[in-house]
Amino acid sequence: MKKTNSLLNDAWSALSKNKAALISAATMAAMVFMVLLGPIFSPYAIDEIDWSMIAAAPSFSDGHIFGTDDLGRDLFVRTMYGGRISLMVGLVATLVSVMIGVTYGAVAGFMGGRIDALMMRFVDVLYAMPFLFFVILLMVFFGRSIFLIFIAIGAVNWLDIARIVRGQTLNIKGKEFVDAAKTGGVSTIKIIMKHIVPNLLGVVVVYVALTVPQVILVESFLSFLGLGVQEPMTSWGALVNQGARQMESSPWMLLFPAVFLATTLFCFNFIGDGLRDALDPKDRTRGND
Amino acid sequence: MSNFRFVIGRFLGAIPTLLILICLAFFLVKAAPGGPFDFERSLPEEVEANLRAAYNLDDPVYLQLAKYIGDLLQGDFGPSFQYRDYTVTELISTGFPVSLRLGFAAILLALFFGSLIGSVAALNQNSKLDYGVMFFGMIGISIPNFVMAPLLVLFFSIGLKALPAGGYNGGDFYHMILPVVSLALPQMAYIARLTRGSMIEVLSSNFVRTAKAQGLSTKTILFSHVLKPTFLPVVSYLGPATAAIITGSVVVEQIFGLPGLGRYFVQGALNRDYTLVMGVVVFYGCLIILFNLIVDTLYGFIDPRIKQNR
């Protein structure tokens, strides 16, 4: 119990000293609130077509505060729903990649020797693959369902985490409490799950914060190309794509989703950087800034 | 001799990676519903027969794979699914020169300005200039190509009417400015941050302090002691940077309507042109692996410590 507390305290004191990270965290909290609650306060639904308001400019008087798109749908509501999808992909796909990466890295690090060398060689090989292209292949071949997006993006983003976790595991494995557990006859799986993994939390937290923006970026990239989420659902990437086509006549269609997407990526990068400065023992630049 | 062995070793080491890439693509296409290897679809008999012949479907799987790899080695990527009159190889050889031009210009731009800006920031560490560079660097990293490109078009083409909004026009200079810049910006930002961090580390190292203590001029220290170790991480980032530029060019070509390989790829993906998509993935994959290999090998020559460790 004490371990978790001190980790949270560490993270908190690191973040509270780093102004950029703190502002970013507050912005993200506000963003989550907004995408969850925003649509409730709008009189319009996500797929509701307002025939009298095709591609109308933002205005407070008619309730379309972000304007409407070229089909007369309320852009505020669509941006909020798009945000739900983008943030959800960020969260779920990151969880998938963390689960794969932590397990893989912990097993490789704990086993050591030939198994470790083989497993890490495999990671090296995978590193060289053009993964985004494989995600696109998967989307093309097996249909564009949201589940596949979660799994596909998560399944290709675990390599960094696996490497970091392996390094940490090698370090922890030499500690006395692991020896004690071994001597006490605890099974290997139980040692990994109960003794190694909880001690990896610090690095994992850092890499979660760094993976979320990457994952959101991949999803928007796919949706931008028309290979991600499909109508009537939408995401920030899909909205940016639609906006880019209409930007000459109605630039707000591009600007609102673009600002939301960029702000989110920006904030997560700052939070990740801040956490890494504080928690990652491997950070070499620490102390220089 | 040892240099020769090092290079050969590196090249041999890349072969399994290439094979895994090709096998992954091959089996993915095999597993795809409605793909060229799916029997439960209704195609005209002649097409069916052509496909069977082209992919040796009557052979056992391992022979099919072996023949596919054999065809690849001869530069034959098979026929396109959608463009009836073209082979995938023809499509690649039309599209790739455009993409190469775009990507090469972008990476040069990113390298030059990225390392310049990063060095200036590092030499003025913790100044307002430094913080400014770092802040804009973070913005550059955070705003993806496909958001940056439309914003640039909105500003420079629609707003200022200074640059064309799209089209290739035979690779004319003015038409290439916006695509190249929007492709280069995120990489430029990343390289700037990388250079800054690396140079700060080098500047605070013992050998630089010694050089200072010996009374060498700042210029000498900078050019003969600091620059080389500073750019080692930048050189090793060239591999991932190329991969990022290639993926980025897919959207940038789409946005600016450039007739590059990325555009064929997206069209192929949307039209379910299996063979074209698979061909482009294999082609770009091999290219990325090859480029990583070259960078790795070069790195071994720049930094001899690497060679010894292997």
- What is the β-strand count of chain A? 0
* Backbone CA Rg of chain A: 22 Å
The gross shape of chain A turns out to be: elongated
Spans of chain B of at least 5 consecutive residues whose pLDDT stays below 50 are none
- What's the end-to-end separation of chain B, in Å? 15 Å
List the helices and strands and how they pair.
The complex is a heterodimer of chains A (289) and B (310).
Chain A: H1 2-17, H2 19-37, H3 75-111, H4 113-127, H5 131-142, H6 146-156, H7 159-173, H8 176-183, H9 188-196, H10 201-224, H11 236-245, H12 252-279
Helix pairs in contact in A: 1-12, 2-3, 2-12, 3-4, 3-6, 3-7, 3-10, 3-11, 3-12, 5-6, 8-9, 10-11, 10-12, 11-12
Chain B: H1 2-31, H2 45-55, H3 61-73, H4 88-123, H5 128-142, H6 145-159, H7 173-203, H8 206-213, H9 218-256, H10 261-270, H11 274-302, H12 304-309
Helix pairs in contact in B: 1-11, 4-5, 4-7, 4-9, 4-10, 4-11, 5-7, 6-7, 6-9, 7-9, 8-9, 9-10, 9-11, 10-11
Describe the overall structure:
The complex is a heterodimer of chains A (289) and B (310). Chain A is mostly helical and 289 residues long. In chain A, 71% of the residues lie in helices and 0% in strands. Chain A has 12 helices and no strands. In chain A, α3 (75-111) crosses α10 and α8 runs antiparallel to α9. Chain A is elongated, with a radius of gyration of 22 Å. Chain B is built from 12 helices and no strands. Chain B has helices at 2-31, 45-55, 61-73, 88-123, 128-142, 145-159, 173-203, 206-213, 218-256, 261-270, 274-302, 304-309. In chain B, α4 crosses α7 (173-203). The longest helix of chain B is centred in the C-terminal third of the chain and has 39 residues, at 218-256. The interface between A and B is large, with 42 and 54 residues.
